[in-house]
Design brief:
The chain has three domains: about 35 residues; about 80 residues, no CATH class; about 100 residues, no CATH class. The chain is about 60% helix and about 20% strand. It contains seven helices and nine strands; from the N terminus they run H-H-H-H-H-E-E-E-E-H-E-E-E-E-E-H. The strands form two sheets. It has a five-stranded antiparallel beta sheet, with helices on one face. Strand 1 and strand 2 form a beta hairpin. The longest helix has about 40 residues.
Length: about 260
């Protein structure tokens, strides 16, 4: 029994050595082929093919970037209607092939290079955001299928608010997210989005019950920050003043107690 067990292990080791030797031999043959004229010619052909494909994808992406959002959506709809039509599918099935979806493959390459990855609603696909459209890419039986959903485009006010956020970042404001609200903070000044505009207020530690709303542009944001700095400075001056007054009162009590 022990002998049979030993023989089984030795057989496994022998098979492993055989596989390794085969792999080494194949690797040597493959290396020789790449160094041959035939191998070099094939590598050159593939390099040219990949380079042409890359130029084609870049060209398609450039054309899509120059499209308006509405034209882009119409193009997607047109491709979807073509590939989902029974007439198109039947033409391929009658020839004994699955329907070809070349444009979906091109779109997938554009999305993987230039799209923003996001969470897919299904666990079986990949999702990207491209030109304010969410695409979900699925693979099955050698085919590529793409679903899409229009996202809400940024309004003019949204874009203005983004400019304010960019200004705050350049001005040294730090971004914080405390789950309840997202805000930007610097030197006691707190800025946060409030509906379709920004709001500016002193942080609670200063106990200033003043809030400047309706900040809809960078200029108004600058003015609000300047005004808030003045309020905070005034608050500090008042605190120092009252602190000094309190010290006088305390000192007077100590002196009077000492005399007593």
């Amino acid at each position: 029994m022990e002998k049979d067990k030993k023989y089984g292990i030795e057989k496994d080791v022998e098979d492993l050595r055989s596989d390794i030797n085969i792999s080494i031999k194949l690797n040597e043959e493959l290396k020789k082929w790449f160094e041959s004229d035939e191998g070099k010619a094939e590598v050159e052909r593939l390099n040219i093919k990949f380079e042409n494909e890359n130029k084609f994808i870049e060209s398609c992406h450039s054309r899509l970037c120059n499209m308006s959002h509405d034209d882009f959506v119409r193009l997607i709809k047109k491709v979807e209607d073509k590939y989902s039509s029974e007439e198109y599918k039947d033409r391929w099935y009658d020839r004994g092939f699955c329907p070809e979806c070349f444009l979906y493959s091109v779109m997938e390459m554009i999305l993987s290079r230039y799209g923003q990855e996001t969470q897919c609603d299904s666990c079986f696909g990949d999702a990207y955001i491209y030109k304010d459209v969410k695409f979900e890419v699925f693979h099955g039986q050698g085919e590529v299928h793409i679903n899409y959903k229009l996202l809400q485009q940024k309004t003019f006010k949204n874009k203005v608010m983004d400019k304010v956020e960019s200004y705050l970042k350049r001005s040294g404001f730090k971004f914080y997210d405390d789950e309840a609200v997202e805000y930007w903070y610097k030197d006691g000044i707190l800025m946060y989005r409030d509906g379709d505009c920004w709001s500016c207020q002193a942080s609670r530690e200063f106990d200033i019950n003043v809030m400047l709303s309706d900040i809809v542009g960078v200029d108004s944001a600058k003015k609000a920050i300047v005004m808030m700095k003045k309020l905070i400075a005034k608050k500090h001056r008042l605190e120092d003043k009252y602190k000094n007054e309190w010290k006088k009162i305390v000192n007077k009590i100590i002196i009077d107690d000492g005399k007593a």
